Amino acid sequence: MKQKDTGVMLLFVTTLTVIIWLWAAGQTKTEATVTTTVRFKAPEGMTSTVTPSFASVTLTLAGPRSAVNTAKAACANGLDLTVAETDGTVSINDIASRLNALDELKTSGATTVSAEPSAFNVDIQTMVQVEAAVEAVLSNVTVSGDVTVNPATVTLSIPKRIRATLPDAITVQAVVSDSALQQLSPGVVHTRDAAIRLPIPLDVPDVTVSPSRVEVTFKIQSMKEETVIPQVRIILAGPPEDYASYTVELPRKTISNVTVEGDIDIIDGIKSGEYAVFAVIRLASRDMEQLISSKPVTSFLAIGKDGAGHQLDVSVENPDALNVELNIAPVSGAE
Q1: Among 36, 273, 305, 314, whose Cα sits 20 to 30 Å from the Cα of 88?
Q2: pLDDT tens sequence across 13-22
Q3: According to CATH, what is the number of the domain 224-330?
Q4: Which pTM value belongs to this model?
Q5: Which listed CATH number (3.40.50.11540, 2.10.109.10, 1.10.10.10, 2.170.120.40) goes with 126-223?
Q6: Facing residues of 191 across strands?
């Protein structure tokens, strides 16, 4: 019996010794390094962006071994560091002290002795939310009836400093791609997905838009295309009786490099020679009487073999070429 009591006592002493040893080992002062990600955050409730938004930092931790291990575990998922409530470039100094104040490290019992790097510069921008109207852009098509956009407005997140330079009302564009439009038939109501395109002052990485895509509903009346005509002949149109009293000469009889746009079938006809394109100058009787020396082109027409004319939209390399010089003179002996 005495021998049994001795064995129990020995087991108890051994167990207690191991527990004390483990506790002492855990309380042994030690140092360790750990590399973690520090995320720079705006104060809660603030709509600000911080650049850079994170950085890699190597920390030296000191304290009881168990505390250091707890701190290392807390660093495994990264640490959030709140920055100042201000716009512009901000210096964050003494990173070690700032991290020591975080609950994750403070409750571990370990101390952040040093951090490398020990300081950072970050750029803070306060963001403002703005509602913008959306207008549809349907290139190279003529639409019939109304065009609707759903939703009709989007929300922009804009840096405060940029918003101050913009007008109160902001409009963005919903662009249906050319490839999508080319596959659609005229005379049918279509609904297509469209990407939001920002105006140039807002087309910067700091600006975000929500939603970034909308739906556009429309009916195509006709499809449009364009082509370039090297030389377009100038013709005059006016009251026939005036030509009995006046002569009109054109020192320049053509306009060079004219880009014309119209319905696809008209443009195809121009390319095939079915239609001829003319720059028309309409002269009124008063123009003749005043002997004007120049006049802008009134319209560009594609005239078919049947004599029917179709008005075209045009652009030219030199807009001044659309103002045509005229030599108007009375006919001798005309009343």
Answers
A1: 36
A2: 566 555 554 5
A3: 2.170.120
A4: 0.50
A5: 2.170.120.40
A6: 217
